Amino acid sequence: MVASLVAVLAGCSDGGPAHRSDRAEATGTGPAQRAAKARCRALARTNPSPGARRSDAAGVTRITLMLVDPRRPTPAIPHRHASPCRVLPTELRYPTAVTRPVPLIVVAHGLDGSPSSLAPLLDAWAGAGYVVAAPTFPTTRKDSHGASLASEPVDQAADMRFVIGQLVGRSRTAAASPLTGLIDGTRIGAAGMSLGGLGVYGLVSNTCCRDTRVRAAILMAAVRREFPDERYEDNRAPVLLVQGDADSGYHNSVEAYPELVPPKWFITLHGSGHSPPFEVPPGPEAPLVYT
Known about the structure:
By secondary structure, the chain is an alpha/beta fold. The protein contains eight helices and nine strands.
């Protein structure tokens, strides 16, 4: 799978310092850009098969999917060329013994993170009877102060919407696949950690990115700020906020909670910081969070 990703990125995304050597390349009309678009379309059409399945003693099966959105670009940053598509390696976990469609949770990792940082939590959710899908987002673009650009959570929310559509569609297909019949498309949730939580706020309560398929949301130490040229509306899905009061960003949840409409819940983890309740290495509060 790593080799496949390298091959994809070599033709479609990462590959060295970003540059615009001439006007044609910058506008996406040059030969290299046309070839990259063709590779993106071809990769999306091939609908890559899942990677090898791995099951553990706890009854959780894991596979990796290479999802490609050929309709949305990935902008250039230092050490990454611009790409006409979005490449989303997606870790999928589900109960090994599942015999009927089960709910789907799509999970957004934090700034410069990855699904692996949330692995024990995702395993716990899968073991409890859920399909858990965690895409790896393209590297976040930042300003000169190291803060994420305002457009990034919008892009990540769109990534999550794309993943939902891809997985629900594959679950409905009659083709032989480990995903066939796996997902209950009427029961979809979203969860986000830190910056990933901002994208989830977009999915459930902002005009930028609302997705009515998302029926519940978990915001874990989530960032909450305004989206460019968009507005927050009443959430139409139940929302659970979880954050430690020793987290410097605790105010995000404190300020967001009164603006949300019921059903809603806010769990404060006293003395907890930003990462340990959710990411590895786990803190002492992890068993509470996992269950």
